[in-house]
Amino acid sequence: DRQTLVAVLQFLRRSNLRESEEILRREARLLGDDLGGNVATVASSSPAVAAVAAVPPGKGGARGGTAGSLPRAAGRHLCRDPRGLGGPCASCSLGGFGGSVVVEDQPDVSAVLSAYNQQGDPTLYEEYYSGLKHFIECSLDCHRAELSQLFYPLFVHMYLELVYNQHESEAKSFFERFHGDQECYYQDDLRVLSSLTKKEHMKGNETMLDFRTSKFVLRISRDSYQLLKRHLQEKQNNQIWNIVQEHLYIDIFDGMPRSKQQIDAMVGSLAGEAKREANKAKVFFGLLKEPEFDVPLDDEDEEGENEEGKPKKKKPKKDSVGSKSKKQDPNAPPQNRIPLPELKDSDKLDKVMNMKEAARRVRLGPECLPSICFYTFLNAYQGLTAVDITDDSSMIVGGFADSTVRVWSVTPKKLRSVKTAADLSLIDKESDDVLERIMDEKTASELKILYGHSGPVYGTSFSPDRNYLLSCSEDGTVRLWSLQTFTCLVGYKGHNYPVWDTQFSPYGYYFVSGGHDRVARLWATDHYQPLRIFAGHLADVTCTRFHPNSNYVATGSADRTIRLWDVLNGNCVRIFTGHKGPIHSLAFSPNGRFLATGATDGRVLLWDIGHGLMVGELKGHTDTVYALRFSRDGEILASGSMDNTVRLWDAVKAFEDLETDDFTTATGHINLPENSQDLLLGTYMTKSTPVVHLHFTRRNLLLAAGAYSSQ
Q: Where is the sequence biased in composition, kind Acidic residues (predicted)?
């Protein structure tokens, strides 16, 4: 309709949007300076507006002003349609130039434009989507796999856009027609999505809010991207092109497109893949140098050890999987990069014990598998929710759903508390056995129950020196307990919601916690407030782990990603995507180079921390992997699952001959071995007991724990 067109052109001219005006003229073949005509008559003829909607906006500044453009407009400047229709104002829908527009009060033109905005035809959404789908399915095989990644984010955004603009029936039919085409690993998200059918529902839903505000990342080769861009521009399919530009971040790389297997291995998280930039920062993954002190030799050990007090047997082991060498590791952080606590005499004694135990350690491998000792919690009607075992394997702790924390002694030595102050004053402080005398024999028992939490206890962690115990709970607190008095010393309040996991640093003093509020916090035992807050996950932080050098913290989340954080400055230095369900277990290899992660998808993924790459995938479990642990020298990885099995994997073989060249790092062309069964060394069934925790003793005996379930 010529008059409507003239009105729009006049408006553009008045607003100094010359570029848009030119584009619209060219498209409408309105050359010359013909902007006369009576504008007033236009306002009443709103049915004619559909004609403007049909004028395809150009490829330049003028965006397609459809019903869906509110979120995009809102990103630039907040404004509303004067009639309260919930659409963006005229300047947003047309110009896309944002805040530079000054809208004068012209009821006639704005009436035209707001009607124009409403006409962004919701009935065409299905056509747009199926058009793109047809194009992708007919493209060459090499591009099809890459471009298929677009289906899911576009589907979600188009659906949300329809719901947001209150086209409920169109949204419903759009969902029903296309939800079956999405990859199986998005089923849980689609279930959430299907329940959002009204604009009001979207306000309270955090997941969807994140989806709208954070850009979904796709990694696509330049050739595939050019193909897509050309198709959308030829088809004038602005609705989809707008979503691609606004809500997706396309990480373009030069080189061959990736295959379906390579893409499937890496995608599946809530926000797509990680940008390649995210994994570029340098990470000091090496181990800190052990402090040197003399080890007194026992007679029986004399022949087994050399002058350094280091076991002879481990000599040839130096190069392979990170036995502690005296040389400074070139990849290690500077010794004083973060302040670590001084070693006390008791710590030195413990290190000596550790070395002696290590001298008797069994060298594991495919020919020599560890024995497994399983601790079953019987009659655990309180519901076992967390387990930890001390480094020297002398105590085991269980966190329960009835809010108690229970500590058992696993050795014949019973648990004793320190005597009362009155009794302590009578003790001769100079005597040799003063540490023995301060303990109260009357309190000796195999089990101590710690009361204090007011909700299920989801995480427990012993301090390396065995003097303290951490527990975190649904009540939002982390508690520090003394294992000398078996009382609570501190309650750390920082999380406002359930805290799912907590863990001490391998050097003590620091600890980390993660919870439902989507952040992980770093604490020191003597500070009430957290020292660092690690924010970035889009859903609950479900598990936390310190790197062996204590300079980094890994967190796993329900957003299906794993992040590595730098303790020094709080920055996120790695983002790993590839799991198809919430992450529930993390384990660093003893040499600090690799990370293993387990999730509800039953897969165990292996990551090279230095290069920021996935290097392995272990398939075998049929349910959530709740526990992962490397043997003391890193030859074997043990995994425990809700499928009532413990599996042992050959870690040496998994990590040898890795092709981590610069090309792979740059493009993410990872080549995982087809068959992880070659790496599986053994599967051990429990008697209907899900495996909640695994621990290798200092001599490489594997301890496992879980609660018997009678169903």
A: 295-306
